[in-house]
Amino acid sequence: MGDNETNILLKVEDLNIVFHDHKRPETAVEDVDFELAQGEILGIVGESGSGKSMTAHAIAGLLHRSEITKSGKILFEGRELLGCKRSELRTLQGNDIGVVFQEPMTALNPVKKIGWQVGEALRIHTKMSQDEIRAKVLEMLASVELDNPEEVYEKYPHELSGGQRQRVCIAAAMICSPKLLIADEPTTALDVTIQAQIIELLRHINRTAGTSILFISHDLSLVRQLCERVIVMRKGLVVEEGVCEAVFDNPKEEYTKQLVAAIPKVDFINKK
Q1: Which of 157, 200, 210 is nearest to 179 (CA)?
Q2: How many C-beta atoms surround the C-beta of residue 250 within 10 A?
Q3: Is 174 helix (H, G, I), strand (E, B) or coil?
Q4: What is the pTM of this model?
Q5: CB of 120 within 8 A of CB of 147?
Q6: Do residues 71 and 35 touch, judged by C-beta distance below 8 A?
Q7: 101 in Cβ contact with 186 (< 8 Å)
Q8: How far apart are CA 218 and CA 259, in angstroms?
Q9: What is the C-alpha to C-alpha distance for residues 51 and 73, in angstroms, rounded to an integer?
Q10: Of 49 and 169, more confident
Q11: CA-to-CA distance for 16 and 72, rounded, in angstroms?
């Protein structure tokens, strides 16, 4: 984290999200504050219902239900996202902010070919020709280490494995070279071997493209492998944050101690 304020890509200030679809209001996120620097990988961890995904969706501009109230600030390169118009958000979504979700099968359209889906953001945000889009999509499919990009381009989602589908989702999220990639539980639906490959791919994207990554997970071992800093959330609140090694090796809060104690004792992949 640099001292220079201009190094900050994303700043969340006093974020509150309250649901009003039950008999009494339910606070999903309460007084959340954090910053993400350009080129940084930040993890948000917590159990189901901790508010981590809700925070990510607020940043991505994906909270549109009428029974939600939101307050605070989400500043992306100084632009306030929480209260901005939908039209403004749409220019950022897919262009400057990419999102990868937990279950690639639901994120992909079952009746559209892979090439069409990965190229969609280019059709929306650029004036590239069809040939230019095709070339860029093939380049992107290769960059996320999918074998035979030409074949994958012509396939439908059900013809790919879960790991391949998640690589396609990452390619679609990265096609416009966003400054921020939000990865919301991107490995949960995958087996351990494929999880490790996706983590390595995200690390590679961060290194080569300089993309900032907000990595949402309940799996602390994955966060430790990938992230530089971590935020621990519980019941909508940030209970602890800091450099990953410090938080994992010397947790201060009882809740974090319990989470760390539950991590399977395996050798962590060294961050290079």
Answers
A1: 210
A2: 11
A3: helix
A4: 0.91
A5: no
A6: no
A7: yes
A8: 9
A9: 16
A10: 169
A11: 6
